[in-house]
Amino acid sequence: MNASELHSSIELIRHGKAVLGCELGSTRIKASLVGPGGEPLASGSFGWENLHEDGIWTYPMEEVWQGIAMAFRDLAADVDRQYGVPLTGLAAVGFSAMMHGYIVVDKDDKLLVPFRTWRNNNTGQAARELTTLFDWSIPQRWSIAHLYQANLNDEDHVSDIARIT
Q1: 157 and 112 in contact (C-beta within 8 Å)?
Q2: pTM (2 decimals)?
Q3: Element (H, E) at 103
Q4: Distances 67 to 16, 52, 60, 82, 113 between C-alpha atoms, Å
Q5: What is the pLDDT of residues 38-97, one digit of tens each?
Q6: Strand 92-97 to strand 28-34: parallel, antiparallel, or no bridges (unpaired)?
C-alpha cells in the first residue's frame, strides 16, 4: 500500500466511512472491514467448533455473541496495528451465516430449542417426504427439513414457533 492509499484508508476509518461485514461460518466467525469500493482494510476472526449435545450438533448461542465480540475486537486491533487510528464509527454493518440449520424463536424472540446445525442428519423422513411432495431434492440439512421433522416428531416447541431463521 502506497502512502496515498494508506492516507485514504485512514481517512475512511477516521470518518466512519468503512463497512463491517461479519460471517458466522462453521469453523470461524470472521469480521472484515472494507472500503466503499469493497477494498479490504482489516480483518479479525474467532475460531469455534460445533458441539454434539443430546444427539444434536449445535453451537451455544452465548458463544455466537462471544465470537462476534472477539472477532470484532481482533478486527479493531488490526485497524489500530495497520493504521494507528481507533475504529469509532461505521457506514454500515452486514451479517451472514451458515445457510442451513434450524433456529426457531417464539413471539418474544426466545430460542425454543438449541440451534440445530447443518451437520445434523436426523431429518431423513422429512427430507424424503418433502422431496416427493415438491418433486425437488430437499436435503436433510435444509431448514424446512428440520422444521417438518420437528412437526413429524410432534416436538413440544412447534406450536410456539413465531419465526424460523
Answers
A1: yes
A2: 0.83
A3: none
A4: 23, 19, 11, 22, 20
A5: 999 999 999 999 999 999 999 998 999 999 999 999 999 999 999 999 999 999 999 998
A6: unpaired
